[in-house]
Write a structure and sequence with these properties.
By secondary structure, this protein is mainly alpha-helical. Helix content is about 40%, strand content about 5%. Strand 1, helix 4 and strand 2 form a beta-alpha-beta unit.
Length: about 130
C-alpha cells in the first residue's frame, strides 16, 4: 500500500520498490481497500527484501512499514541512505470476520496514506 501511495503522490520524483520479509502473495484485503481508492495493486509483483539486499541495490531512502515486532527482522541495506521506520499493524495477522478484516485493513491503509503525505510535505514535495 505504501508503494502505491508513494507512486501516486510522489510521481516521477521517486523510483519505488516494495519488498516483504516473507515470500507470498498480496493480501486480498489490501487489494480491495486500495481499489476503493481507485488504485489497482492486484498485479503488483511481490519480492523479498533480502533479494534487494543481495542484489546490492542502492537507495536514497529505506522505509520500513512493519510493526515493531517484525522490524527486528528487517535486513540491513548496504550503502548510504536515510532509514525511516513507520510502524503499522500487519493486516494479514488480524483475526476476525471478513468484514472486520476489511475494516481493519482500511484503517491501516488510511494510516499509511497519511504517513506518505506527511513524508512528502516534510520533503517539500507534493503532486
Amino acid at each position: 500500500m505504501a508503494e502505491a501511495y508513494l507512486k501516486k503522490y510522489g510521481g516521477e520524483k521517486f523510483h519505488v520498490e516494495s519488498a516483504g520479509l516473507e515470500s507470498g502473495k498480496l493480501n486480498p484485503f489490501a487489494v480491495r481497500v486500495m481499489m476503493e481508492e481507485g488504485i489497482d495493486i492486484s498485479n503488483n509483483p511481490t519480492q523479498l527484501a533480502d533479494d534487494l539486499v543481495h542484489d546490492n541495490r542502492s537507495f536514497d531512502f529505506v522505509i520500513t512499514v512493519c510493526d515493531e515486532a517484525s522490524a527486528e527482522r528487517c535486513p540491513i541495506f548496504p550503502g548510504k541512505h536515510t532509514k525511516l521506520h513507520w510502524s503499522f499493524a500487519d493486516p494479514s495477522s488480524y483475526k476476525g470476520s471478513d468484514e472486520e478484516k476489511l475494516n481493519f485493513t482500511r484503517g491501516v491503509r488510511d494510516e499509511i496514506r497519511s504517513a506518505i503525505k506527511k513524508f512528502l510535505m516534510e520533503m517539500n514535495y507534493s503532486r
